[in-house]
Amino acid sequence: MSDGDGGPAEGGSVAGESAGGAATATTGSRLDALRDRAPDTRREAEALLDRLVRENRFTIAVVFPLVGAVALVGSAEGWVPEPFAFHPWFVLFGVIVMRSPLVVGVLPTIGRRALGWIGVLTAYTYLIEGVGVATGWPYGEFAYTVDLGPMLAGVPVALPVFFIPLVTNAYLLCLLLLGPRADSVWVRLATVIPVVVAMDVVLDPGAVSLGFWDFGGGAFYGVPVSNYAGWVLSAIVAVVTLDRAFAAAGIRERLRDCEFMLDDMVSFVILWGGINVWFGNLLPAAVAAGFGVGLVRADRFDTRPFTEWRRS
């Protein structure tokens, strides 16, 4: 009740204004704190991203692909109910997270030249996949039977997110293992092409078993031999393009210094190796295991969580 002179009402108003001012001040201080922590330069942003990936390596490279393998197999086997089975945004989100170590690892080497050539490789990716879906050349007749995110003319809009990291991982692994011998473009071609094809030996049988896409049958776990001939062509284009995109010294120095740069390949081994094991695709699973052994021997797999767990 008011006493007639507006005292209590004015007191409430003053209290409200005081509380509102305090809330505004708190919000302002939080924003100031966020601004202070936000990177001011590209180098600071790259350092921040490096730290985020480094501190979450095990979650990104091991937990995400394990969860993804269980979810995808569960979707294929009918254990995951609609509309969650093969949910396109879940698939795309998982892929983007698993790709993050590669993207963050490569980021300091990206300049205008690299962006231009990556744009060329992106255009090639859409072109060759669109031609493949429409004509069956060069991979053989196939069609996507699961939406991998938004689709356009039968091709995933996010196709470069799936394709370019795969060939980039093969390219970087070969640079790492070849050392000075990678100076020769012919050696790079002779090495990267088989590695890219070997990665597809793992990928396509698993994807066909899941029902991601369908070739209508094939001699190799439902995949036609023509598919691998098409991958030889794509590997050649990828090697030539990546050679143009990156300065050799810069990408090798970053690869040497960035221990998580090939963690996306660790995810690939766990995800697709596990899927192939489940469906009994023994040769693709063995090839995936071979990649895993190579990554461990190259000291490109963070085994500390496992060793720490055993000690505890």
TrEMBL record:
InterPro entries: BABR_hydratase, CruF, CruF-like. The keyword Membrane applies. It comes from the Archaea. Residues 1-14 have a biased composition (Gly residues). Pfam families: Caroten_synth. Keywords: Membrane, Transmembrane, Transmembrane helix. The chain crosses the membrane at residues 58-80, 86-107, 114-137, 157-178, 185-208, 228-247, 268-296. Residues 1-38 are annotated as: Disordered. Residues 15-29 have a biased composition (Low complexity). NCBIfam families: crt_membr_arch, CruF_Halo. This is Putative membrane protein.
